[in-house]
TrEMBL record:
Pfam family name, one: Rieske
InterPro entries (alphabetical): MocE_2FeS, Rieske_2Fe-2S, Rieske_2Fe-2S_sf
UniProt family annotation: Belongs to the bacterial ring-hydroxylating dioxygenase ferredoxin component family.
Keyword Iron: yes
Span of domain Rieske: 5-101
Source organism: Fuscovulum ytuae
NCBIfam families in alphabetical order: MocE_fam_FeS
Protein name: MocE family 2Fe-2S type ferredoxin
The organism's place on the tree of life at top rank: Bacteria
PANTHER family, A to Z: FERREDOXIN-RELATED (PTHR21496), RIESKE DOMAIN-CONTAINING PROTEIN (PTHR21496:SF0)
Cofactor entry: [2Fe-2S] cluster
């Protein structure tokens, strides 16, 4: 059964940026949009298994630091080659100053 896991504080992420969040054996990224919304998705690029947290957030997408593949952080869709496999996204809620993801 899914449960809500605290990932970070809202102040841990600047607008239009992301952080890495590890839980068990899984790695995620938590993105804060320039509109102050929070999103969560798999934190490893589907192309060559690189940590996305070392990349960039821009124009509604996360760019992989290795080969510049991009993923829409709202949908997980791979939007630029060489990545062609979408990433999973996860529900997010903000309670007070904390960000939670549903796993």
């Amino acid at each position: 059964m899914p449960s809500w896991i605290r990932a970070c504080a809202t102040d841990d992420i600047e607008p239009d940026d992301m952080i890495r969040f590890d839980h068990g054996t899984q790695t995620f990224i938590i993105v804060r949009s320039e509109d102050d919304e929070f999103f969560a998705m798999d934190g490893i690029c589907s192309h060559e298994k690189v940590h996305l947290c070392d990349g960039l957030v821009m124009d509604g997408a996360v760019e992989c630091p290795k080969h510049n593949a991009t993923f829409d952080y709202r949908t997980g869709e791979a939007t630029r080659a060489p990545a062609c496999v979408n990433l999973r996204i996860f529900p997010v809620k903000v309670e007070g100053a904390d960000v939670f993801i549903e796993l």
